[in-house]
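Hi there, hope your week has been kind to you so far. Thanks so much in advance, here it is.
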Amino acid sequence: MKHDERQISMFAGAPSGESLNRGDRGGTVPLSFLPRITGKSPGMRACQFLALLRIPEGKKAGKPLKLAKFQKSFVKGTFRPDVMVGVLSIGRGNAKTALAAGLALAELVGALQEAPQPKREIIFAARNRDQARIAFNFLVGYLEGLPEADQELFTIRRGSKLEVEFQGNGGGLARVIAADGKSVLGGAPTLAILDERAAWEREKGDSLENAILSGLGKRDGRALIISTSAPDDANTFSRWLDEPPPGTFIQEHRPPMGLPADDPNSLLIANPGAIEGIGATPDWLVAQARRAIARGGSALSSFRNLNRNERVSTEDRSVLVTVDEWMAAEVDPDQLPPRDGPCVLGVDLGGSRSMSAAAFYWPDTGRLEALGTFPAFPSLADRGAADGVSDRYVQMNERGELSVMGENTVPPGRWLAEVVKHLDGQTPVAIVGDRFRHAEFVEAMQGAGLARVPFIWRGFGWKDSAEDIERFRRALFDGEVKVAPSMLLRFAFADAITLVDPAGNHKLAKARSLGRIDAAAAAVIAIAQGARMKATPQKKARALWT
């Protein structure tokens, strides 16, 4: 195995006056153990090849590579004849990059087909060079475990470009690129590995991905897209999982939402390698989960995203509340407090083609409910696709949390009348809404027969928002908010962040342009008003002397 710092491309030839020194092998000699691979399908041949390698690093370094069940499932599914893209989503530390590097080596030496293409090209793509180097180092580690005679067939280049060239069995080149689409234009890879796809920058990452996928068609190539979960549904990696195009094999290890971070069974869903000796042990995962719970904040969000493979934002710079802080308020429907005492109705009146949302809060018991409404056009399915959330809106509709009214806009008066019907005859003690929409609210309340209900105007700027957000957070953290599990609220709070001015005041904003935070905004102002009502001293009746 030769280490060469020169930048030599197998397609461009050797530099003037220099030779690749291939000897008499001339690109025709295969590896010594390739005849032992007898499978007929690429998936079977890949599994047989991987079993001949040795683990390059870690606590089992030097031992024969043994595939876990989930790894065999991914390999066989990805290398089916009708599959062009294999997508794997799994928790950190489950050897997904090591598996991909092993498959890259199999393609590099021509082990996946009985009659492989000559001059095979393998691409390791990642957000940056350092990330791509991880897969490259695994590939080199596998090479170092081969017999010395076989190692002589490889040339490793570690200059400004990271490359491994194979000089036998038709030849092949494996190279590393970062997320810049221009760096791969004109390529014709037979295998491409897109590592940690969820972490790529949106524009550069999509450009690189498109360039790679367009090049695969030239030589019937295949792509492996591997990553832990993205922080949201709008990420391109999430779109691969939720809306896979034809010719895509999906394998996702993601537990259901709403479970405690230290739930052992769901930890094993995200980390199937833990029970097969890959990565962290189950006990370590539980211990780390409890440590993250104790620390809270970004530590807990990162653990959920990286180790539990959940779609949880790891942004902690200005989130309204973290996912765990909100889920602490969720209770089973049969444990929800009763609708006792006065009810505060918070309203976020949507504009044209946007959501209108209402939140009902009973300060005496802490009960919270929420409803959302979209116009009928476009449909909920089409709107979900446009917003990058797949069928989320359809699911909310089936759960009774999201309704449809009107055509292109939600009619304010009729909608508010329907919202009040949700209270089963109870009249709200107050309605809280945006001061900026004053005229529309007046018309809507008159149309709904609520003109006598007190309306409390709140601004969504720095002044009023800072107070409302602080009261909302205090009520939430003090356990004064109880809500049944709600997709509408859960995802609204996931998209809600706060902007902070130099004086430290907060106001509500979207984490992404297509986010829907209307239900969160309605809940914030309703709960804040409920907190003000509870803090207001009750007037005592004066004694009358006769």
